[in-house]
Amino acid sequence: MTPPTATTPAYRRLSVTERRRQLLGAALSLFAQHAPEDVSLDDVAEVAGVSRPLVYRYFPGGKQQLYEAALRSAADELELCFGEPPAGPPTERLARVLTRYLAFVDEHDAGFSALLRGGSVVETSRTTSIVDEVRRVAAEQILLHLGRPDPGPRLRMTARTWIASVEAASLIWLDEGKRPPADELRDWLVDQLIGLLAVTAASDEETAGVVAGILRLETADSPVGRLARQVVPVVSEAAHLL
Prior knowledge:
- By secondary structure, this protein is mostly helical.
- It folds into 2 domains: 16-67, Arc Repressor Mutant, subunit A (Orthogonal Bundle); 81-222, Orthogonal Bundle (Tetracycline Repressor, domain 2), CATH 1.10.357.
- It is 70% helix and 0% strand.
- Helix 1 crosses helix 4 (62-80) and helix 4 packs parallel to helix 6 (125-145).
């Protein structure tokens, strides 16, 4: 594997915190472009502009320890994507969350794909736990935006199902050469959540209350309003089945 050109031209003395941050940054740049098993400590050292023994000094557990630390750093960054002030229509908030999430996917590309697909030779219970934590944080944030931080089983399952759908769509998006454009994918994913909530609301009183609360906050120009204008003609065509 030919690593990217090193951005640090020569060794210079840094504090422990600065050096660790530098090495993690170099590792993340490589894991973002290559599957973990295709990245070596020599690659990381070259990109960071340091010696291989120096990498070992900070990560004596070798590539496995470095990968887990880099993954933890990336997970922390990804979790920040889900933070959004609780103001304005909920679907507009979720659209902003997805904009940041898809930007993260776009930036990390192959590394994101390798992470979620699993099967890497450096995958362990610890790396799996880190990924699961991101999913848990995502679900908690989505439920907060829906006004139900402690939901019942049907609503919780709906939120988790949607997150799984977002992950799957992100991987397919990468496979398809990042088509359609990210903003179209974002809008489609928001529409999917609206649809899932509507279907669940038909048989779950709690979710019906959530949907009613969302609709009171939405506007004609919000994703719900846009989706309603698109769906009403389709429903009208199917009215003869009732």
